[in-house]
Design goal:
165 residues, globular
């Protein structure tokens, strides 16, 4: 029988504080996307699954920082690991009928929407200001999250390429 690792042995109090901050930020942004796209009535966010995804993300980031002896990581790496664990854990659960097709990949859609808004805001852009290349990147990202095998490292490569544009 598999047992869950004791994350308290890996994460410091500061790491947990950071993870809690990320948890609430992702929770809030997930709800905003669900409401905006009228998904609130047919989906729900499982708090324990989202918590596990954020803790897994925090543990990976902690291990990377320790291994490379660094104190900060770059944004593409942060997002790659967050997207990976969000898609792997799938915290959004379908509870009713809704938009055909979208519900089968709602987790991938929501986290990509959160990521795209964050990156665009960081660049001082609005969704309406995006270029065709940027929109195509987000479409391809969702496609790859849906249909292709990926890991955090391959996502990091793709996100780094996008962020360097």
């Amino acid at each position: 029988m598999l047992t869950k690792p004791d994350y308290r042995k890996i994460l410091t109090k500061d790491d947990f504080s950071d993870a809690i901050e990320v948890f609430y930020e992702v929770w809030e942004k997930t709800d905003v996307v669900r409401e905006y796209h009228r998904l609130s009535n047919c989906t729900r966010v499982e708090e324990t699954i989202l918590r596990d995804a954020i803790i897994d993300h925090a543990v990976d980031i902690k291990r990377l920082k320790d291994f490379h002896e660094i104190t900060e990581i770059n944004k593409p790496k942060f997002w790659a690991y967050l997207i990976f664990w969000y898609c792997r854990r799938k915290p959004i659960q379908v509870v009713g009928a809704g938009k055909q097709g979208l519900l089968s990949y709602v987790n991938e859609f929501v986290i990509t929407t959160i990521f795209s808004k964050e990156i665009l805001e960081e660049r001082g852009l609005h969704e309406d200001d995006t270029s065709e290349k940027q929109r195509e990147f987000f479409r391809l990202l969702i496609y790859n999250l849906r249909y292709r095998n990926f890991n955090a490292q391959s996502l990091e490569l793709a996100l780094t390429g996008f962020c360097c544009q």
